[in-house]
Design brief:
The chain has 141 residues and is α+β, with helices and mostly antiparallel strands. It is built from five helices and three strands, in the order H-H-H-H-E-E-E-H.
């Protein structure tokens, strides 16, 4: 009969807890640890405070190979729409992007300025154009 290692078991539990905290689903925990399904289920409920998500995970290599072009096109479209919206902020006579604050440092915005997530954009808006400018900030629909 094989002896069970307490140290190995402890490392498996630590690994499972780390994966749960990162948002892993139960199927991933089963494939990445040697712990039983019942033990993983109890551990998941204890760590996450809820039952794990149900449903199958895509394990086919076809799925992993086909998602990349889809995610690439989604990112490209989102960046394109975001840049168009930023370009619309700089409306001659109505509004102008003046300063961009990134990581606590402000810099004067120019035509080559590329915005990143987390940037704080300071816009100078003509008093009579606030409603016009506001429409550009609100999502359509």
């Amino acid at each position: 009969m094989a002896t069970k290692s307490v140290l190995k078991d402890s490392k498996q539990v630590e690994r499972a807890v780390a994966l749960i905290q990162l948002g892993a689903r139960l199927q991933v925990l089963e494939s990445e640890t040697d712990l039983s399904y019942e033990r993983l289920l109890r551990l998941y409920k204890e760590v996450a405070g809820k039952s794990p998500s149900k449903g199958q995970l895509p394990f086919s290599t076809d799925w992993f190979m086909t998602w990349q072009p889809n995610i690439h096109s989604s990112l490209f479209l989102n960046i394109h729409e975001y840049l168009n919206k930023v370009a619309e902020l700089d409306v001659g006579g109505h509004a102008r992007v003046a300063v961009v604050t990134r990581l606590g440092e402000g810099s004067v915005a120019g035509p080559d300025t590329v915005l990143q997530e987390g940037d704080l954009v300071h816009v100078s808006v003509d008093g009579g154009s606030i409603e016009f400018f506001d429409k550009h900030l609100r999502p359509e629909g």
